[in-house]
C-alpha cells in the first residue's frame, strides 16, 4: 500500500524572520479597486509632468485623469485616461514586465468617424511631430492606403 507523505505542520519560532514575514503577508491586503484607480491616476499625472513638461505637463491637469483597476483575468495593469477634446484621448499604463516602464498612447479619431488610430508616444519630440501632422485636420487621423471600404480598419469607436 502506498502512503502519501504529508509534511508535518511546523510553525516558525516566534520572533524569527520567517514568522515576521508570515505576519506581514497575513496583514498585507491587495489594493482595492478604488486604490488602484487612484494609483493609476497619480502615475499618469506624474509621468506626463515629468516626461512631457513643455507640452502635456502644461495642457493636462492632474485632475483630468480617470483611473481604471487592473483586469486580472486578462493580465491588464491599472491604467488611466484623459480626454483632450475633439475626440482625442491619452491612455497611460505601466508595463507588467521586468522594467515597469510608463506607456503613454494617444488615441486619435479617424476622419471617417468610425474608429481611432493609436499612437505610442515615446517622448515629447514624438508628441510634437504627431501633433504637427494632426493640426491641419483639427486632430483627426487621415486614412492612408486604406482600400477596404468606407469604414475605418482601426480600433472601432464602439
Protein model, in words:
The protein is an alpha+beta fold and 158 residues long. The protein has 4 helices and 6 strands; from the N terminus they run αααβββββαβ. It has a 6-stranded antiparallel beta sheet. The radius of gyration is 23 Å and the shape is elongated. The model has no long low-confidence stretch (mean pLDDT 84).
Q: Give the overall silhouette.
A: elongated
Largest sheet: spatial strand order: 1-2-3-4-5-6
Average the pLDDT over all residues and give the rounded result: 84
SSE run: HHHEEEEEHE
Structural class: alpha+beta
| Helical amount | 25-40%
Residues in β-strands, percent: 15-25%
Tally the helices: what do you get?
4
Short description:
The protein has 158 residues and is of the alpha+beta class. The protein contains four helices and six strands. It is elongated, with a radius of gyration of 23 Å.
